[in-house]
Structure formats: C-alpha cells, structure tokens
Specification:
CATH architecture of the largest domain: 3-Layer(aba) Sandwich
Number of helices: 13
InterPro entries: Asp/Glu/hydantoin_racemase, Asp/Glu_race, Asp/Glu_racemase_AS_1, Asp/Glu_racemase_AS_2, Glu_race
Largest sheet: 6 strands, parallel
Radius of gyration: 19 Å
Low-confidence stretches: 257-265
Order of helices and strands: EHEHEHHEHEHHHEHHEHEHEHEEE
Structural class: alpha/beta
Mean pLDDT: 92
Organism: Desulfosporosinus acididurans
CATH class of the largest domain: Alpha Beta
Shape: globular
EC number: 5.1.1.3
GO molecular function, one term: glutamate racemase activity
Catalytic activity: L-glutamate = D-glutamate
Oligomer: single chain
Helix content: 40-55%
C-alpha cells in the first residue's frame, strides 16, 4: 500500500478550502487536515501580534493531528505571521505570497499587476515585495514580447494597484458569494483597478476565488485572474518530492509512513475538517462552495492557549 503524507492547512474560515480543493484534486496520495478559525474570522483587521498567536495555535494543533508539512492557506497570515512561524516550528511551511507573486509575473501580458486582498495584506506590501523578489530570482513572463521588453529595460513589471476589500470575507462566510450584494460591492472595489489598467489580478485572499465568476463578469476577458492556490500546489509537489528523497536517502521506512498521533485508526479518511466556531455552518457554507464534498466537521475549543475537541 502506497504511503500518504498528511498536510495541514489553516485559514480564518472557509477561504482555505480553495487551496484544499486544488490539493485534493491534484495530489491523490496526500491527506489533508484543515483548520478554519471561524470563531475569530475575519483576520484582515487583526494585529500582527494576534495573527502570530493565532498561527502558533493553529500550527500546534495541526502538528498534533499528524501534519508533516503546513500550508498557511491564508494570505493575511502569510503576509504577517509566516516568517515568525517558520522560526518557531521545525516543520516545512508554504505560504501564499511568493507562489502567487511568481504566478502573476509569469502570466502578466502588459506588466501591470493588480491585487485585491484584506486591508492587512495590502498594508504589508507583501505582494509588491513578492513580485520584486520573483523578478530578482529569475521569474519571467511567458509573453515573449513583454519578456523581451522587460529584459531590455523598455517596460516595467510591477504591482501597480492594490485594493483592500474588507467586505468580501464576511459575504463569503455568510454564503453570499453569488448574490446581488457581492456584485454591487465588487463593482466598487474593482473600479480603481480598472482605472489603473491592470491586466492580471492577484486574488490575495483564499476566500476570493469563490467570487471568481462575479469578478470575471465585471472585469471582462482582458484581465487575467491569478489564483495563488494553483502555484501553492506546484510548490507543495516539489516539497513532497524533496521529503521523499530525504526519506529514501536515510533508508528509514518510518519517514514514509503516515504520521500516527490523532490520525491512527482512521485509515480510510482523505480529509478531516476542524473549526473553532460553528461546525454546522462551516459544513453548510463549505458544501455550497465545494459542491457537497464535506461530510463532517469537528469543533475545537481554546483552553489556556491550546485547542481541544
């Protein structure tokens, strides 16, 4: 029987399900443990100190559930807390920012990249820096004309407009992604981006792909939607390959096994879902967004900084 790695994901709510969906579809030999911090959603108006604490609690919980690698499936946490989390935990972690920035650089045609995100992510300038890092590390556009113009210093490639969208997450968490309210609010948020002439738009919050039909309806075919989740899965594939090589080099069969801990005795599961808030609401909204793929959700409670369920 082929061994399966256990990947932990956390987000403020249902948004990270967009990442979980891609992982489950593209990596059949992976199991996921998902934690949605729905009791404290949204994260977009939280301080860095709070986000680091929330991240520490989430990572600790996921490790306790057998996670061997962590996907920080939240752009706000990736922008503010991930560097600290990497220092404090000895486990591989993948965030949303750098993979998303690299994908935007790859896909832009005019070099004018836009961003919609939470206000905290926008203020952090993490994606602007991510685009600069991507270019510095050798990422180039697929478009040959833009690539040549950029390499000859004739055309810039940059994040030219970032727009905070604080009302999107509450709408999606309430199951209103495809509603007249969502369309009205989206038109207001997208107007400055349209005025800036962006040709590629990064969805800088994992909730936002649930709004993609509405966004495309407003923006039209000339603006490419960039979902960082797609790039995160590619990075996760590379990480899993590296983990497999290390295990083979050490010739230690235990390193190729599914972690035990709380996952022992549940050999048939593919994905497990936990939340800090209302599990039934998460299941209902999640199934509306993911077409009835979530069977059960367990609630965890905070006791002296630890999670219990």
């Amino acid at each position: 029987m082929r061994k399966q790695r256990v990947i932990g994901l956390f987000d403020s709510g249902v948004g990270g399900l967009t990442v979980a969906k891609q992982i489950l579809e593209q990596l059949p030999d992976v199991r996921i443990v998902y934690f949605g911090d729905t009791a404290r959603v949204p994260y977009g108006n939280r301080s860095q100190e709070e986000l680091i604490r929330f991240g520490e609690e989430s990572v600790s919980f996921l490790i306790g559930q057998g996670a061997e690698a962590i996907v920080v499936a939240c752009n706000t946490s990736s922008a503010t807390a991930l560097p600290t989390l990497r220092e404090r935990f000895d486990i591989p972690m993948i965030g949303m920012i750098d993979p998303g920035a690299r994908l935007a650089v790859k896909k832009t045609i005019a070099g004018r990249i836009g961003l919609i995100a939470t206000e905290t992510t926008v203020r952090s300038k993490a994606y602007s820096l991510g685009v600069s890092r991507a270019l510095a590390r050798g990422s180039v556009p697929e478009n040959e004309v833009l690539r040549s113009a950029w390499q000859h210093g004739e055309q810039a490639i940059a994040l030219v407009k970032a727009q905070g969208c604080p009302l999107f997450v509450p709408l999606i968490e309430a199951g209103l992604a495809d509603s007249w309210q969502a369309r009205g609010i989206a038109k207001t948020y997208l107007a400055p981006l349209q005025s800036s002439g962006v040709d590629a738009l990064i969805l800088g919050c994992t909730h936002y792909p649930f709004l993609e039909p509405v966004l495309k309806e407003i923006l039209g075919e000339d603006v490419l939607i960039v979902d960082p989740a797609l790039a995160v899965v590619e990075e996760l594939k590379e990480l899993l390959g590296q983990m497999k090589q290390r295990a083979e080099a050490k010739s230690d069969p235990s390193l190729e096994s599914v972690s035990t801990s709380a996952v022992s005795g549940k050999s048939q599961w593919r994905a497990r879902y936990f939340v800090s808030g209302d599990p039934e609401l998460f299941r209902q909204v999640g199934n509306t967004l993911l077409q009835d793929s979530i069977e059960s959700v367990e609630q965890v409670h905070f006791v002296d900084g630890s999670m219990n369920f």
